[in-house]
Write a structure and sequence with these properties.
alpha/beta, 23 strands, Alpha-Beta Plaits, Beta-Lactamase, disordered N terminus
Length: about 750
């Protein structure tokens, strides 16, 4: 291609003659009626290619893209072919990289256009009585020139964007944030789908540390480790050079776990460091077609990214070493009090996230001062070292011990499900410390007074948890030492009562003590029963019928919740099938706990349950989740909801209005309905603010075609207000209290 150039930005292909321009215009006039159709063909051609990107899914965006292509085709034949025309071609090249359309796709597009337009040009030449060769030659020259200019602009912008991204990358100092920025750049350079950082653990194992852009099935490997000689990552470490396989499943490096997760192509680049290789940057293809080879210019950028990643990993190691010196007790080697607040805050967050218990044990050594004074400071130091060693040895793997001050230690016990575990740990600590310390013929006793604060029963800030454990420790010391005590006797009694309830819950399912009661859902105008909500009850052998408020929170913290949840779904579906077979087409609402929503087997269980009850009308089955659970992981929740919707089931957000949910989340979650909580509905009669809030929710729900049920309706005035707002469904004591299935059946008539 011949060019006239005044610099990179002004380079344009050779000029087209007036005769060329005239021929192209005549051809454009002839083709104009077919340009819209040709633009559609071009769009479909792009979509059909193996390396096709994710084109805009939004209808408006797709329409704009089609319009852009049609406009480009019209201007292609309009002339004049001056600087403004070639600027437009450069802009089109840049727009393609913004749409993430690979450069080979641009080339394939022009190949398609040459074929399509050449045929059209020949037909037009016959119609216009033009020499076909004379008409086709400038057309092919024009397409070649446009492809050249677009490709050049595309590459120039890609390089420019890469340089900008590398500059931004150099200004990111947090390792996790740095990795995500580096991963985005690496994915863009390799035209891949995701990336992960693998580091060596325990010398001979590889484990993922960070992910970016990888599917959930792949992120399940977050805590999984594998030998550092396996897979493409292991091979890259062993060789000390990148390993790329475009067909992972058929390669010698394929690992079944990753094949099952959908990995199609894999690029593993070892990460260098001053002390040797530090890990691997693993770039992955799942949806996109892996290229046959990685272009050499892309390799340069990818190697630079891994070099920068290596520098940040090494810097992190140095920071950890320096932090260790500042936060480590030099005598015992234990963490010191500088990390107390951070460790406790982290443990509290973990306990809340995993619905488990966390205990802080505050230990003070009884009799240490006489040992230090009478046997000497060196004996005192040796005693502290030995106690620290013994405490560490006596702990579970998930627990930790630190030296708080002088002769005070702290133990952080995590991931407990029963208060008895905290008791056992405290007793073991008492027994571990208890000993006699000798020097010559002189023997002095040593023991520990321990205060125990258990979260979340003892709620508060990290500092308050420490203070409470400290108070309990002094109470143990005042009681004579060599023992442990909970922060508060009342709390201790409450914990013991809770433990007894946990014990009874474990036997409730096998003894058949759980019951389902049903509360009708009615239409407000006219008043008719349109549905029923299944509510769990516990027929306790000594305490009688218990409502969910007396046991559900404890039940949801136990693994038993899965089995109970299955029982609820099975029982409710069986009853619903019976009603439906009798001609009562009720909407049946079933509540799901957090653990059920996160259970990967839930979908299969629902399918099996529906198969067991063929008379159940699936489009009348509603699954309810409270909004705080739904918003924990919106993408995961949305995926589960979509899968259930494919079965014909509906999802509804329960207790709507009590948490952080906005109606916009309903769109993301694709929920079909909401339940307005009693705390929002009940005050409407006397609170204009609540009245306006509920009306706003109802109006927006109507706009989104979301089904609304008002809960806790207990008087006629509230029902009338809701009816006037356009709320069609409600439940509450005004209509009926929860009842057994037989009574509900009788009410249906």
């Amino acid at each position: 291609m011949t060019t006239t150039s005044a610099g990179p930005e002004s380079a344009t292909p050779a000029a087209f003659s007036e005769q060329d321009t005239l021929l192209l215009k005549r051809l454009g006039t002839t083709l104009r009626p077919r340009l819209a159709e040709l633009a559609e063909d071009l769009y479909r051609h792009i979509q059909s290619q193996p390396e096709s990107p994710n084109l805009p899914g939004d209808a408006d965006q797709a329409a704009r893209l089609r319009a852009m292509q049609k406009d480009w085709l019209e201007k292609l034949f309009a002339g004049p072919y001056d600087g403004a025309f070639w600027d437009t071609q450069r802009h089109m090249g840049e727009r393609h990289i913004e749409l993430a359309i690979p450069l080979p796709q641009i080339w394939a597009t022009f190949t398609f256009l040459r074929t399509a337009l050449t045929g059209a040009a020949i037909r037009a030449a016959v119609t216009e009585q033009i020499d076909p060769v004379a008409g086709i030659t400038p057309l092919l020259r024009l397409l070649d020139a446009c492809q050249y200019v677009m490709s050049t602009a595309y590459e120039r912008k890609r390089l420019h964007d890469a340089i900008l991204a590398l500059r931004r990358l150099a200004r990111v100092y947090d390792l996790e944030a740095f990795f995500h920025e580096a991963a985005k750049l690496a994915i863009m350079e390799a035209q891949a789908d995701g990336a992960g950082l693998l580091c060596q653990e325990d010398g001979q194992q590889l484990q993922y540390r960070f992910f970016h852009g990888l599917p959930a099935a792949y992120q399940a490997f977050a805590r999984w480790s594998f030998p550092d000689h396996l897979g493409t990552s292991g091979a890259a470490l062993q060789r000390g050079e990148p390993v790329y396989v475009p067909d992972y499943a058929q390669s010698m490096y394929a690992m079944p776990e990753f094949v099952d997760a959908g990995l199609q192509g894999s690029l593993a680049i070892p990460i260098p460091g001053p002390e040797g290789l530090q890990g691997v940057l693993a770039i992955s293809w799942f949806q996109s077609q892996p290229p046959t080879r990685i272009p050499e210019d892309r390799w340069d950028h990818l190697r630079l990214i891994t070099d920068l990643l290596g520098a940040n990993l090494h810097r992190e190691k140095l920071e950890i070493r320096m932090e260790g010196l500042a936060t480590r007790d030099m005598l015992t080697g234990l963490p010191n009090r500088r990390v107390v607040t951070e460790r406790i805050t982290t443990a509290m967050a973990r306990a809340e996230r995993h619905q488990c218990l966390f205990a802080l044990l505050f230990l003070d050594l009884d009799g240490f001062k006489p040992i230090n004074d009478r046997l000497g400071h060196h004996v005192g130091d040796e005693t502290l070292q030995q106690v620290a060693h013994d405490l560490r040895s006596a702990l579970r793997g998930e627990d930790s011990v630190l030296r708080y001050a002088g002769d005070e230690f702290m133990v952080l016990a995590q991931d407990m499900t029963h208060i008895s575990e905290a008791e056992a740990i405290a007793q073991r600590m008492v027994e571990t410390v208890h000993r006699d310390v000798h020097r010559g013929e002189l023997t002095l006793p040593l023991s520990a007074s321990i205060g125990v604060s258990v979260y979340p029963f003892d709620d508060g800030s990290a500092e308050e948890i420490v203070h409470h454990a400290d108070l309990a420790m002094y109470a143990a010391k005042q009681a004579g030492g060599d023992q442990w005590q909970f922060y508060d006797n009342d709390i201790g009694e409450a914990l013991a009562e809770r433990q007894a309830l946990v014990h009874d819950l474990r036997h409730a399912l096998e003894r058949g003590e759980f019951r389902l009661h049903w509360q009708p859902i009615v239409t407000l105008s006219p008043r008719q029963i349109s549905g029923a909500e299944a509510l769990l009850r516990w027929q306790h052998p000594t305490r009688g019928l218990l409502s969910p408020g007396e046991f559900l929170e404890i039940l949801e913290s136990l693994p038993l919740m899965q089995a109970v949840g299955h029982w609820v779904i099975e029982t409710a579906c069986a009853q619903a099938a019976q009603w439906h077979s009798q001609g009562h087409c009720l909407d049946v609402h079933i509540n799901l706990a957090a653990s059920q929503l996160e259970d990967k087997t839930l979908l299969d269980f629902l399918k099996d349950t529906l198969r067991r009850h063929p008379t159940l009308q699936q489009d009348h089955l509603w699954l309810e989740i409270v909004e705080r659970i739904a918003l924990r992981d919106i993408p995961a929740t949305a995926a589960m909801i979509r899968a259930c919707r494919e079965l014909g089931l509906h999802f509804s957000l329960d207790d709507f209005g009590t948490g952080a949910a906005a109606l916009q989340y309903l769109v993301e979650l694709e929920c079909s309905g909401i339940k307005l909580d009693k705390s929002m509905v009940d005050p409407m009669r006397n609170s204009p603010k609540h009245h306006k809030m509920v009306r706003a929710m109802v109006d927006m729900a109507k706009t989104l075609s979301i089904h609304v049920v008002a809960e806790g309706v207990e008087d006629h005035q509230t029902a009338e207000i809701l009816d006037a707002m356009g709320v069609q469904h409600a439940q509450g004591y005004l209509f009926a209290k929860p009842m057994e299935a037989a009574e509900m059946t009788q009410m249906l008539g």
